[in-house]
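can u do me a favor
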């Protein structure tokens, strides 16, 4: 017998969907290509969430943290406990390769098995595909699109590209651990969505000259020991050991297209779905979490998309009973 629903992705929203299905006696399974809460696991080690812990809760299960805004380690502990103590049916390290629908039933092909299901929930997030600079030298070993911790960059000349929370956090942490940091920002200011308690810190470090910044500038080429910048004052070359290109990430649009989901053609790649049920143009195929925003990855996050799980479970419970 097929599952009532296969949930693709075991991040916080995928876990919330599993909890909602379990409470509504919906026969489910969760498939995750990495570890539990894989995106959170790959966040910087000392990252602090913008949201307070109670806003990150699932199903009213208390999230207790040392400070009002929890850190990555505390979030991993919380979501692990939710999944483990509620005995959620999750298969980890099992990537979904493709999906097809035959006679109203979905076939989900993974690296290890084939599953059949009446419905699918896609809650895959957006952290796996970085926005590339698309410049010569980007594939050099010195270039990374992910940042883990500062110690590695001690006493090194590090360029941080971007003006978002991740870029600002990395620049400040590396500078405080003895790295020589330079920021390259395409716009003319630090991002407006940078955490309010961090924004004054980076602006003051820039103002005092501790962290040089090139606004309205872009990397033109990355070399083994240098980078070439295009600035308002012309082309310049800087000595460089490492480049952290923290320019954001995007959802797997190719996978959504392969499922047959209608997607906007305005460059935002917004998938189309019913806001009341979260069902897409493909009957029985639902979206949950940040994947709903397409390229606008700032639109949805844990605290405002956890409600997607309740909407989907309610609709599934109704359709499955008919």
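np, heres the sequence
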């Amino acid at each position: 017998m097929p599952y009532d629903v296969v949930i693709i992705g075991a991040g916080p929203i995928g876990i919330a969907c599993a909890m909602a299905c379990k409470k509504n006696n919906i026969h489910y399974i969760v498939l995750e290509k990495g570890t539990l809460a894989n995106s959170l696991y790959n966040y910087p080690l000392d990252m602090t969430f913008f949201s307070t812990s109670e806003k990150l809760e699932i199903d009213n299960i208390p999230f207790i943290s040392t400070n009002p805004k929890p850190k990555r380690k505390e979030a991993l502990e919380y979501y692990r406990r939710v999944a483990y103590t509620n005995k959620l049916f999750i298969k980890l390290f099992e990537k979904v390769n493709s999906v097809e629908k035959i006679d109203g039933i979905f076939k989900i092909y993974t690296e290890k098995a084939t599953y059949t299901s009446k419905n699918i929930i896609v809650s895959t997030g957006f952290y796996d595909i970085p926005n590339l600079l698309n410049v010569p030298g980007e594939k050099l070993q010195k270039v990374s699109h992910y940042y883990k911790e500062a110690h590695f960059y001690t006493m090194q000349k590090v360029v941080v590209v971007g003006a978002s929370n991740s870029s600002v956090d990395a620049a400040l942490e590396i500078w405080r651990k003895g790295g020589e940091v330079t920021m390259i920002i395409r716009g003319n200011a630090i991002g407006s969505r940078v955490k309010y308690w961090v924004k004054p810190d980076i602006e003051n470090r820039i103002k005092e000259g501790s962290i040089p910044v090139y606004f309205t500038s872009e990397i033109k080429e990355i070399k083994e020991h240098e980078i070439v910048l295009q600035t308002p004052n012309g082309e310049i070359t800087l000595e460089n050991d490492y480049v952290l290109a923290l320019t954001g990430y995007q959802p797997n649009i190719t996978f959504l297209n392969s499922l047959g989901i209608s997607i906007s053609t305005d460059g935002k790649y917004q998938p189309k779905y019913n806001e009341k049920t979260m069902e897409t143009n493909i009957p029985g195929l639902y979206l949950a979490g940040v994947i709903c925003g397409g390229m606008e990855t700032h639109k949805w996050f844990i605290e405002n998309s956890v409600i997607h799980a309740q909407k989907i479970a309610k609709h599934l419970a109704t359709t499955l009973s008919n």
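The domain at 5-129+249-321 is CATH 3.50.50.60 (FAD/NAD(P)-binding domain). hope that helps!!
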